[in-house]
């Protein structure tokens, strides 16, 4: 595999020599490229625990001056106005807060929501994210949640956040092993899908040159090797926060694919 990696990175014209590689070999190389691409994300996932400063600041800013007519009284969420329920607050395009006096079992939410839904129900908080991960926190699990007015969030009350953020971080730490594994699987799947689509697009443009020599499946297999510079430049760009390297990588891989096509025709 190292030989294939070195040739794919520095000698694109020799990639044509891999046309007889088995599907298993291609698949293993494809997975190795995918793992290489997600290294920066894996480092981030396994090095971060709880909410960082920027995340806490963003939450505080988004909730500032929001109308949240709810209190936790004796471990029970209560709406102290006659406002229509439930109350939904969109912190971002993918993160949604919901407040309701219904029991957690009675409140229905979309389990296929792509993003994060945090439901403050009558008796507990339900944290649902990334399609399948659910964390439930009973108010009664924390003495500090016996009495809590959410007006503290809208007023940016420091005492309110000094109660809430430590609880969030504690729960995130307790669920960190599972969350890290799940996040890694999602990142791996997303990167594999993107790499597959990008290589298919580039292979499609090589089909005109090579359709008399190879089937489209074989052209795609060779294109996967040509994606090596894209993966390497993307890795470097993510590690050093140089986003443009990823775009350069697409261009370089396209050139490599052209060289593979020309070498295949001329051999």
Summarize the structure.
The chain is 55% helix and 14% strand. With 267 residues, the chain is of the alpha+beta class.
Largest sheet: 5 strands, mixed
Report the β-strand fraction as a percent range: 5-15%
Instruction: Assign the structural class, choosing from mainly alpha, mainly beta, alpha/beta, alpha+beta, or little secondary structure.
Output: alpha+beta
Share of helix, binned: 40-55%
Number of helices: 10
Across the major sheet, the strand order is: 3-4-5-6-7
The number of distinct structural domains comes to 2
- How many strand units? 8
| Inertia-based shape | elongated
- Average pLDDT, all residues: 86
Radius of gyration equals 25 Å
| SSE string, helices as H and strands as E | HHHHEEEEEEEEHHHHHH
Alpha carbon gap, first and last residue: 23 Å
Model regions low in confidence, pLDDT < 50 over at least 5 residues: none
Structure overview:
This protein has helices at residues 2-10, 23-37, 39-47, 53-63, 151-154, 158-174, 176-210, 216-226, 228-239, 244-266, and strands at residues 70-73, 76-79, 87-90, 95-99, 116-120, 124-129, 133-138, 147-149. It has two domains: 2-43 and 180-266, no CATH class; 65-155, no CATH class. Helix 2 runs parallel beside helix 9, helix 7 (176-210) runs parallel beside helix 10 (244-266) and helix 9 runs antiparallel to helix 10. The chain is an alpha+beta fold and 267 residues long. 55% of the residues lie in helices and 14% in strands. The chain is elongated and about 80 Å long. A five-stranded mixed β-sheet has the order 3-4-5-6-7, with no helix packed on it.
